[in-house]
Amino acid sequence: MKLIIAFFAVTWSWLATAETVYLTSLSWPPYSDKSLQEQGASVAVAKAAFAAEGHTLEVEFFPWSRAVKTASSSGSKYVGYFPEYYYDTQEFVFSEPMGWGPLGLVQNKSAPISFTGVNDLKGMKIGVVQDYVNTQELDAMIASGAIVGEAVPSDVLNVKKVGAKRIPAAVIDANVLRYLLQTDSSLARFKDAVEMNATLLQEKQLYIAFRNDEQGKKWQQIYNSGLKKIDVQSIMAKFLN
């Protein structure tokens, strides 16, 4: 009887402290999308990490700019957004890395690009997605005008533009490109026309960006603790291989 009482006491204590944390995300398969199994690789990792600490994650999906803005709003129930690349900011604090993504350029197979570094892209028009962080060097060169960055709302539009030879290349994650070409019917006619350039811009680590306030920092610490208790690589591999 004492053991039963002790068991229920521990269980009740755990339930009493369990909370639901809210984050925003975007449709960026295979990393995140509400229609995917477990809502994607990054969401699966995040949910597992919070669950390891006894908490539940709820994710709301928005267009990217809105996902970031919603998470940054003071008093919002959403304490952060993901998946994000690291960048310098005062608005957010970043989690420990929660996975990775090979960032590079999609090109037209009939007009491949030869480059070994970002400097080789000077003067070229490169497609980017509006408000996405790319690499520090590339973003700086776009900001300076050394590279012409042509922004659109989505990766799909950039792939179409490259496939139609409207631009020579666009920045994209290799896993995202592979997924889109396999699943998006609107890209069917470009499937055999585009490919990833063999030279990557960077192997990017993925993070949760928590709002830089008391609640955000609280959940950052909880999440980082949970990450240490799960096998991130194994979870990611289920979606990316």
From TrEMBL:
<protein>
    <submittedName>
        <fullName>Polar amino acid transport system substrate-binding protein</fullName>
    </submittedName>
</protein>
<comment type="similarity">
    <text>Belongs to the bacterial solute-binding protein 3 family.</text>
</comment>
